[in-house]
Amino acid sequence: MSKKLTVAVVGATGAVGREMLKTLHDRQFPATEVRAFASARSAGSKVPFGDTELTVQELKEDVFEGIDIAIFSAGGGTSETFAPHAAHAGCVVVDNSSQWRMDERCPLVVPEVNPDALADHNGIIANPNCSTIQMLVALKPIHDAVGIKRVVVSTYQAVSGTGQKGLEELERQTRDLFSLRDPECKVYPYRIAFNVLPHIDVFLDNDYTKEEMKMTNETVKIFNDPSVKVTATCVRVPVFSGHAESVNVETVKKMTAKECRILLSQAPGLKVIDNPREKLYPMPAYIAGDDETYVGRIREDESIENGLNMWIVADNVRKGAALNAVQIAEELLRRDLVRVKDRNVFMA
Ligand code: A2P
C-alpha cells in the first residue's frame, strides 16, 4: 500500500475504542496516520497506541476531511449524528453501534461469514452485535454444510459489553460486598456482582429484550437467509471479559458431533476445544485477548432428529467488537473498497 491511509477511532477513550487502537497496532494495520476522537470531555487526554500515545481530539462534524476509514464505537447516538458526516466527507465508516445494522443501505458484516456484502457499501458498514458475531462464526460452516433451520441460544455475557462503566460497576460492587457495604446499582437495574441478570438492553413490546432480537434479526441479514429462525435469551453474568453461549441448532440434514468437530476445527476464525474426558472446554477467563472464537461441548441433541448442542466462547471486546471492525477495514483494503461512491446517501 503506497497510498497514504489515515484511520480514525471514534470513541477512543472507551473500552472498545482502546481495544480498537490496540488491534490496529497488533495487526500492523497499514495506516500512515491514526487519529483518536472522543467527546469534548476527553479532548487533550492521551490514549495508548503501541509504544506511543495519541492525543484525543474532540469529535465534530467537520473532522472527517482527509480521513479514509473511521471506526466508531461511541454509542448509537454519536453514530447516528456523525457517521453521515463522515460518509459525506468520503470517509468509510465501520460502526460498532446498533444504529445502522438493520438499515438496508448498510452491509452488516462478519468477515469470516459474508465478506462479499461489502461490495455495495455506501460509506457506512455496520459491525454486528458481539453475541451474534461469535455465534455466526461458528454456525456458518454448519449452515453451508447441512442447512440450519432453527437456533435456540442462551448467552452468558460479560460486563465489558456495557463498556468501561460495566467493568467499574462489577468491580465496585464486588468491593462493596466484601466490605459489608450495600452495593450501589448505577449501570444495571440490579446488582451484577454475585448475581445474573436475564436482561440486556431494553425490553420490547414482545417481551424480548432488544439484545435478544438483535441476535434473531442480525442472523437473517448476515446469512441473507430468512429461513433461519433464532430465538435467544440474553443474560448478563458477573464476568469481566468474554461472552459464552449455549447454542442448540436444528439442521436440515444430519450432522454428527464428530463431523461437526472436524468441520469447525478447519473453519476460519475458529478453534475447537472439546475433550470432555480431559475436562477440556473453552471458558471466558482463559481466552481473554484471543482473536479466535472457541467451540466446545459439541453433542448431538438426542431429543430431535437432526440437532446439535454446543458452547461458543469469544472475547467480546476483541472478536465481538474491535477485531471484527478492524478485519472489516482490512477486507475493504484488500478489495479496494476504501471509497464512498455516492457521498449523499445518508445526508437526505
Ligand atoms: P468520552 O470518554 O469522552 O466520554 P464506553 O462504551 O467504554 O463507555 O466508551 C464510550 C466512548 O464513546 C468513549 O470514548 C466516549 O468518550 C465516546 N463518546 C460518548 N459520547 C460521545 C460523543 N457525543 N462524541 C464523541 N465521543 C463520544
UniProtKB/TrEMBL annotation:
Subunit record text: Homodimer.
Organism: Candidatus Desulfovibrio intestinavium
GO MF, one annotated term: protein dimerization activity
Active site: C130 (acyl-thioester intermediate), H243 (proton acceptor)
Binding site for phosphate: R101
Biological function: Catalyzes the NADPH-dependent formation of L-aspartate-semialdehyde (L-ASA) by the reductive dephosphorylation of L-aspartyl-4-phosphate.
Keyword Amino-acid biosynthesis tagged: yes
Protein's UniProt name: Aspartate-semialdehyde dehydrogenase
Origin superkingdom: Bacteria
Enzyme category, top tier: oxidoreductase
Catalytic activity reported: L-aspartate 4-semialdehyde + phosphate + NADP(+) = 4-phospho-L-aspartate + NADPH + H(+)
Gene name per UniProt: asd
Domain Semialdehyde dehydrogenase NAD-binding: 6-121
Classification lineage: Bacteria, Pseudomonadati, Thermodesulfobacteriota, Desulfovibrionia, Desulfovibrionales
